Amino acid sequence: MKKHTDEQYMKKFMHIMLGAGGQKLDFVTKRSMENQFYYDLITEMEDGIDVSGTSVHCIYAAEMGEIYLKRYEQHFKNPHIVKHNLKHEELLACKPNEWVEAIKKCIGVE
To answer: H or E stretch including 28?
Structure first.
């Protein structure tokens, strides 16, 4: 992570997302983190998922690359893509108030 990101983002990510320096998260181990990220990559999903009466909202961090956008469009029929020119989970980790507003807007709560 240190190789691919700036220090402020890394510190915020570690603090907010992983509890480093904040929450007591003894249950989070190196192995459980590896599993979480690994299984995100290998979990198979159907294409064109469409459930009547539901909407899929995807917070798209454009700095992650178009492969993620293509994945959302492949797996979900007509996904609502909310694009941010940010890194993975940067909106949540570094701009939590903006993240809340984005989620509220997606679900129609203003």
So the answer is: none
Which tokens belong to 40? 């995100």
Q: In this structure, are residues 92 and 99 in contact, taking their beta carbons and an 8 Å threshold? A: yes
- Residues recorded for the chain: 110
CA angle 72, 74, 75 (to 5 degrees): 70
Res 14 pLDDT > 60: yes
Residue 106 and residue 95: Cα distance in Å, rounded? Answer: 17
What CA–CA distance (Å, rounded) separates 61 from 65? 8
Place of tokens 């009466």: 53
97/58 Cα distance (integer angstroms): 17
Tokens 């590896």 correspond to 34
Amino acid at 55: S
B/e letters for 12-47, b = 16+ CB within 10 Å, e = fewer, are: bbeebeeeeeeeeeeeeeeeeeeeeeeeeeeeeeee
| pLDDT, position 88 | 78
